[in-house]
Design brief:
It is a single chain. This protein is of the alpha+beta class. 31% of the residues lie in helices and 34% in strands. The chain has two helices and five strands. It has helices spanning 29-47, 80-90; strands at residues 2-6, 9-20, 23-24, 57-63, 68-74. Strands 1, 2, 3, 4 and 5 form a five-stranded antiparallel sheet that branches. A hairpin with a 4-residue loop joins strand 4 (57-63) and strand 5.
Length: 97
């Protein structure tokens, strides 16, 4: 996981697929194509979701130095588990884990 900046927004960059010299590690050509197509389809679906309570999805990118495909999202200041624990302790009736 990496952090960075994109168009003035703090972002998180998470590696999804590590690629070998000929594509996805340990995959044959047909499986590699299917895996990359599935990743692209998921990215397209995520790009259409917008909600104030949902992490913003910016897109996918290729990291040439790591030879990997990565997902770029809004950088959150806390993780979900910590948020639930914090809010459950202040008002247990509002959050169920």
């Amino acid at each position: 996981m990496y952090s960075g900046s994109y168009k003035g927004s703090a972002v998180a960059v998470k590696t999804l697929l590590a690629l070998g010299p000929d594509g996805v590690d340990n995959e044959d050509g047909g499986e590699q194509d299917a895996l990359l197509a599935e990743t692209a389809a998921e990215a397209e679906a995520l790009s259409k979701l917008r909600h104030a309570n949902m992490m913003h999805f910016f897109g996918i990118c290729f990291l040439p130095e790591q030879q990997a495909v990565a997902m770029v999202t809004e950088l959150c200041t806390t993780d979900l588990r910590s948020w639930i624990d914090e809010h459950a302790s202040s008002d247990p009736s509002q959050v169920s884990a």
